[in-house]
């Protein structure tokens, strides 16, 4: 399903809004709680790597499975469905994706979407939560270790989030997130491996919880950092987001980032039809075939050709 050409991109708005960027703060307020939590999480994840060659095959399969479903909670759910409304989903699919996103433990859908919409509207300015103009480390993880820039909060408060507020699935999750998310992410995977596969409980926890969680975090963060620094720019050379194959593989199809920032409403989040580097697109297409996903928005071949021809001039 195509969309009018006048919706080709919100990139112009992003470039225009660079004028809102002020000088970088001389000193950011460190959030020590996040530093300690991420430090120990990575420490246990490293211990999990040590056990990878000794754990049971069933535990490995379970860890990979949980990584995939939590990843889909972010890409297919929080990102393409709720943040960009690139397709619509019926209640059963929204509940499933919400469950997966809760298990991913990357903030509630409501907060995730708000920050992501600010990111797109004010890309790589002070109002961007993970502003790539502040360097690789900041855009990858540093933004989580300091207080948000005041522009992020100010611009976030101007967004219309009524679509989220009218979604009972999103609001239910927001209300009970801090109860369910830590349990689903850091307890249930290890318990399943220990109870059903008879894996050592500590080994199960460091691998299926810590190591798996750290991998999904870095896969998500790489879209904000790696895919804003290294890669090609076939659709808009004036912005930082790039096309990065490696990131796309690790993030189930989110690495075609130059395209995505030009066509943010495309449910594929990329221009290629192949599912090899875009697992999330394959899942949305499958859901469309069974009737759980509908009104899929996508750029037409004519729009892509026009955009590329502009870049060749």
Write the layout of secondary structure elements.
Layout (H helix, E strand, L loop, with lengths): L10 H6 L15 H20 L5 H27 L4 E2 L1 H14 L4 H13 L14 H5 L9 H7 L5 H4 L2 H19 L1 H10 L3 H24 L20 H6 L6 H6 L16 H11 L3 E2 L6 H12 L1
Antiparallel strand pairs: 1-2
Keywords: Fatty acid biosynthesis, Fatty acid metabolism, Iron, Lipid biosynthesis, Lipid metabolism, Membrane, Oxidoreductase, Transmembrane, Transmembrane helix
Cofactor: Fe(2+)
Organism: Zophobas morio
Write up this protein:
The protein has 313 residues and is an all-alpha fold. It has one domain. The protein contains 15 helices and 2 strands. The chain has a two-stranded antiparallel ribbon with strand order 1-2. The relative contact order is 0.16. Its main location: membrane. It comes from Zophobas morio. Belongs to the fatty acid desaturase type 1 family. Pfam families: FA_desaturase.
- Topology, number of strands: 2
As a percent range, the share of strand residues is under 5%
Shape: globular
Helical segment count: 15
Query: What class, by secondary structure content?
Result: mainly alpha
Poorly predicted residue ranges: 1-24
Alpha carbon gap, first and last residue: 28 Å
Strand order of the largest sheet: 1-2
Q: How many domain units? A: 1
Q: Mean pLDDT, nearest integer?
A: 89
Helix proportion: 55-70%
Radius of gyration: 20 Å
Largest sheet: 2 strands, antiparallel
Give the SSE order as H and E letters.
Answer: HHHEHHHHHHHHHHHEH
């Amino acid at each position: 399903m195509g969309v009018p050409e006048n919706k080709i991109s919100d990139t112009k708005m992003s470039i225009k809004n660079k004028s809102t960027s002020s000088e970088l703060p001389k000193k950011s307020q460190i959030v020590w709680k996040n530093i300690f939590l991420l430090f120990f999480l990575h420490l246990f994840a490293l211990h999990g790597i040590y056990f990878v060659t000794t754990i049971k095959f069933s535990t490995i399969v379970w860890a990979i499975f949980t990584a995939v479903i939590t990843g889909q909670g972010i890409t297919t759910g929080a990102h393409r469905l709720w943040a960009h409304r690139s397709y619509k989903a019926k209640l059963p699919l929204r509940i499933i994706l919400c469950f997966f996103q809760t298990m991913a433990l990357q903030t509630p859908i409501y907060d995730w979407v708000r920050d992501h919409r600010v990111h797109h509207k004010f890309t790589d300015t002070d109002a961007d939560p993970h502003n790539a103009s502040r360097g690789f480390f900041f855009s990858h993880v540093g933004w989580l270790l300091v207080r948000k820039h005041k522009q992020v909060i100010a611009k976030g408060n101007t967004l219309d989030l009524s679509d989220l507020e009218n979604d009972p699935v999103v609001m239910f999750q927001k209300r009970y997130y801090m109860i369910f998310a830590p349990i689903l992410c850091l307890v249930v995977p290890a318990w399943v491996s220990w109870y059903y596969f008879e894996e050592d409980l500590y080994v199960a926890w460091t691998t299926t919880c810590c190591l798996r969680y750290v991998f999904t975090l870095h896969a998500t963060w790489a879209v904000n950092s790696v895919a804003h620094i290294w890669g090609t720019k076939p659709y808009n050379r004036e912005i930082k987001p790039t096309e990065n194959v490696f990131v796309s593989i690790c993030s189930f199809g989110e690495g075609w980032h130059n395209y995505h920032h030009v066509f943010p409403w495309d449910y594929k989040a990329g221009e290629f039809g192949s599912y090899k580097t875009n697992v999330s697109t394959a899942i949305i297409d499958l859901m469309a075939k069974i009737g759980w996903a509908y009104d899929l928005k996508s750029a037409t071949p004519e729009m892509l050709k026009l955009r590329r021809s502009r870049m060749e001039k």
